[in-house]
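Interim report, section 4.2 (structural modelling).
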Amino acid sequence: MSANISKATQKQSRPARTIAILALALIGFSIFAGLASATKIKLGLDLRGGTSVTLTPRGTAGGQVTSAAIDQAVSIIRQRVNSLGVAESEVSAQGSGTNRQIVISVPGDTGDRIVKLVGQTAELRFRQALASGAGNAKTTSTTAAGAKAAASYPTGVTAALDAKFAALDCTDPKNRQGGSVDSPSDALVTCSRDGSTKYILAPAELLGSQVSKAAAVLDQQGGSGWMVSLTFNGSGTKAFAAMTTRITSLPAPANQAAIVLDGLVVSSPRIIEAITSGSAQISGNFTQTDATDLANVLKYGALPLAFDRGEVQQISPTLGADQLHAGLIAGALGLGLVLLYSLLYYRGLGVVSVGSLAVAGGITYLAFLLLGKYIGFTLTLAGIAGAIVSIGITADSFIVYFERLRDEVREGRSLRTAVETGWQRARHTILVADFVSLIASALLYFFAVGGVRGFAFTLGLTTFVDLFVVFFFTKPLVTLLARLPFYAHGGPLSGFSAKSLGVVTGKEVA
Amino acid sequence: MALSGIGGRLYRGDTSVDFIGNRKRFYAFSGVLIIVAAAALGIQGLKLGIEFKGGAAFTVTAPNSTIDGANQALKDAGITSEAIVQKIGNNKIRVQTGGLANAQSDNLKANLAKNYNVQSANIDTLSIGPSWGKEITKKALYGLFGFIIVVMLYLAMAFEPKMAIAAIVAVIHDVLITVGIYALVGFDVTPATVIGFLTILGYSLYDTVVVFDKVRENTRSLTSTAKQTYSQAANLAVNQTLVRSFNTSLIALLPVASILFVGAGLLGAGTLKDLSLALFIGLAIGTYSSIFVATPILATLREREPAMIALRKRVAVRNGATGEKIVAESIPGVVTSTHSKEDRVRGPRNQPKRKSSKKH
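Predicted structure of the assembly:
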C-alpha cells in the first residue's frame, strides 16, 4: 500500500494538466468540426421523415443467392436510387456473406416511388403472343367451342398451357404481383399489368441484357403519351429483326410482340412491319414519372436475384419531428433526474457528476457530428434511446468510484490518499463492467439490422466516451478537489462528512 | 442522509442482511417466478407485433376524424381479413392488416389518402414481409447466444470460471422472467422490445460485476486468515455493495423511466415505449438477481470445493475456540494475520459448529 501512496504523490502534479489537455483537445475538435462544416448531426429517417426498405434476397430458378450476386444487386439498386437525384440516399448491405439484407433509405417523401423502384427485378423479355383473352373470363379456353383435339390448339400451345390459361384469373390482384423471374426458354402463361388481358406467350427471343440504352420519351405525334424508347445492342438488333420479320405476317394474336417485365406483360404491340433499326418503344399509359423510372430500371439492368420486401417503413416528416421532439424531451428529463439525484445524494461530489456528464455529453455530441461527416453516422430514434440509456451507465461508473472513495475514507484514510487507493480498486470494476457493455453493443451491432444497429452503435460509442471521461476528467477532477479544504475536511455538504459516511459510529465500535 | 449512514454500517458489517444464508428462500422465489414465466410462455405465448408476424400498418394524421373512413378504405381495397382500425389520441387513425399484396397495399393507401383528404406521402407506413420475423428472430437469438458465450469466457478470464457461471445463470434468469412477464401481461413484442431484452443482458451484468469484484477482493486472503467462510465473506461483499447497487440501479432506472414516460405519454406507441418498458422491467429484475441470485449461486458453487470445505471447518474451529467477539467486531481490510498461523495447527476438528452468521 505504501508503494501505491508514494506513486500517488508523484502523480499529484498531473491532474490539472490532464484536464487542461482534455479541454484543449475538446476545443480543438470543436474548431475542426466547425471548419469541416460538420455543424449538424445527421438525423435518421425516423426523425426527419423518409422511406426505408429492407430487401431479403431469395434464390430463384434464375440464380442462386451468392455474395457476388448481392454485391451486384447493391450496385444496381444504388444506381437506380441515385437516378432519382435525392440527396443523402443510402443503399447498403447489412449482415454477412449470403445472409445479407439490402437496406435502402431515402429521405423525403418519394416513398411509393422508391418502394417500386428498388424491389423490381426488372427482367425484360420480348415474347411472341400465342393466344390472348379477356382477363376476367375464368373458363376461356384457347380453342373454339371447347374442341379438345390437340390439333385445334394454336401453334405452340399445349393442353397443359391451355389448362393453366383457362384457370388464370387476372382480376385477382394476387395473380398480378409479378416479381417472379420467368424462365426465358419456356412458354409463359401470364396477365397484363392492368389485369385486363391474359396471354400464352412463346419462349423469349430477346432479353433485357440485349438492351443498350433506355430513355423516357414523349410521343409527340401518336398521342400515346409517355413511352420508354429502347435501343438494342448488336445481337439484340438481329434478334428483334428476326422476330418481327417472322411474326408480322401471322394472324392476330400471333403477330403481337409481348414486352414482359418481371413476368407481367407491359404492352403487346402488333408488329406491322419488320423492325431492323435496332430500336423499339414500350407504351402503356405511362405517366412521365413511370416512364422515367422504367427507363432507369432497364438502363441499369436487371437484378441478379429476386428480393422479398422484408420491411418497408415510410415516415412522414411530421411524425419524424414528433419523434425527435419526444426523444429530446426524454433525454433532458432523464439527464435532469440523474443530476438531481447525484447532487442530493453525493452533495459536493455531485458537482463532479454534473461536470463529468457535461463533458461526456460534449464529447458524444462532437462524435456524432464528426462521425456523421466522415463515416455517415446517422442518429435514429433508437440511437437517441441508446444515448439516454447510456446516461445511466456513465453515471454508474462515477457512483462505483464515489462509493469506493467513501469506503476508503470509512477505513480511516485521508481523502487525498483515498482518492488514489479508491481509484485503483474502482478502476478495475469500471473497466470490467464497461467491457461487458462493449461486448453487448458489438454483438448487437454485428448480428442485427436496421434500428437495432443504431442503438448498439450509440451504446458502444457512449461506453467508450464514459471510459474516456472517467479516466481523463472525473478522476483528475476528484484529485484536484480533494486538495480543497471544503472536501478534505469533510464539510457537511462535501459528500464526505462523518455523518453521511457513518464514520462516527464506526469509530466508537472500533 | 439516512442511506449513507446505513452504508457505513453495512460496510463494517454492523448491519448485515443474510443473503447467502437465506439463499434457499430466494432460489425458491426465483424458481416459482421462472415456472410461472415458463407456464405463461407455454400457455399464452408472446403477443407479437406485426414486425414478427408480417403485415402492414398505416397511420393517418387527420384531426377530429372517425374510423369510418378507414373501414370504407379497407372495404374499397377488398381487404376483409384480420384488419384492426384504431384511433390513437385525437388526431391519428391506425389501420393494421395482415400481409398484403403490393397492389392491395397501394390501393388501401390511396383510398385512405382520399377518404381523409391527406397526401399519400403523409401516411406513415410500415409493411413487413412474412419471412422477416423469422429473419430477425434468428438474428436476435444469434446475438443472445453469442453474447452469453463471449461474456462467459471474458468473465472467466477477468474473474474466475465459477463467477462467470453464476453471472450467466443470473442473466438467463433475468431474461426468462422478463419474457415471462411479457407473456403474462400481454405487452406487444416488437424489435424495439428485443433490443430492450438484449440490453438487459449488459445491464444485469454491470451490477453483478460490481458485486463480484468486491466478493473477489474480500475472499482473496480467505484461506490464509481463516476468519470467515466463503459464504460469510461473500455475504459481507453483497452488504458492502448494497448501497452502490441501489444507487447504480436507481440512476440507471431514472433515464429509462423518462423514456418510458415520454414515449408512452407523448407518442403513445413506438420504439421509445417498447424499448424502455423492456428495459424498465429487466433492470428491476437484474438488480434483484445480482444480489439475491448471482452471489448465492457463486457461494453455493464455491462452497463445494474441498479447500472451502476445509476452510469452513477451520473457521468453525477458530470460532469455537476464541468466541464470536472477534468476527462481530472485525473490520475487513484491517485484518491482523497474527492469529492465523496458530489457528491452523490448533484444536480438534470436532468443535461445536458456529451458528449461521452474525445477526443483530
